[in-house]
Amino acid sequence: MLGEKERKIVRALADGIPFVPRPYAALAEKAGMEEEEFLSRLKDLKTRGILRRVGAVLQHRRAGFSANALCIWNVPEGRLDGVGAAVSREPSVSHCYSRERAPEWPYNFYAMIHAHSREACESIADRISAENGLGERKTFYSVREWKKAAMRYFCEKQEI
Amino acid sequence: MLSEFDKAILNAVQGEFPLESRPFAVLAERLHTDETTLIARLTELKRDGYLRRLGAYFDSDALGYKGTLIALYVSPDKFASVIEAINRYDGITHNYEREGEYNLWFTLQTASESQRQIILDEIHGLPGVERMLELRSAKKYKVRVQFRLD
Q1: Is the residue at B113 inside a domain?
Q2: How many Å lie between the alpha carbon of B57 and the closest alpha carbon of chain A?
Q3: Are residues B70 and B124 both part of a single domain?
Q4: How many domains does chain B contain in total?
Q5: Closest CA to B14 of B131, B145, B105
Q6: A131 to chain B nearest CA, in Å?
Q7: Predicted pLDDT of residue A155
Q8: Contact call for B10 and A56, based on CB within 8 A
Q9: Which one is predicted more confidently, B146 or B121?
Q10: Cβ of B88: how many Cβ atoms within 10 Å?
């Protein structure tokens, strides 16, 4: 798992990257280390796959993606990985997961589809269903976002 | 309205942000502009609500956190109070109202099984929560959120 210095780095990043010329120097100060050490440890976390990426997330509705649908299917276990790989290649799909079924819920495959209209969203979802031979689809359109935040790791019971 | 320059900036910052001492300068060069101009424009794009966040995204599993998706059916008269209660949890990062037989969907990340269970029991007990589904993630195939602006 992570060492204490690495946890400090993760915590220092909880509020994102500041818009200043040397953002990592500012974050390093928060984490109590030099910029050089901060950057080399961050690169190491990236190499180890613990850090997925540093980058921006858009306010996608503001940017014109007004139709956002959570689409759900029931995919036989043996086909999950193949279907998962194929659906992940779709540019309109942002998130694609398999999840355990629940007693009253026989579905196990989830994809978030984003488009500029519901019609566009439906046609993408229909095409994904057809191309992958998927059965019945459940679709839940977003009505309103009530919370979207970045996870603050290692902050649960942080000592001051 | 977004200019062509804005779209180029938003497409670029959604990619890999440089892990270098002067990352904005590196990005500015690619966009044929300078560091000061880029930082100023990014600040405005954030203020105007196009850019949600520039940050580091970690693999929650690798950090020892387990994620789950919860679907609720909340009776309409109790909707506001349920949302208020749910949004108070730090481990609940996404909470969306959706159309359909389950009308509120949120994600929960916790560092332990017991913590997860405590939170879910509390939410299940909220007045107005009529149905709850817990959909634990099995495998992530894609989590990269990138929106290309043309």
Answers
A1: yes
A2: 5
A3: yes
A4: 2
A5: B145
A6: 18
A7: 82
A8: yes
A9: B121
A10: 9
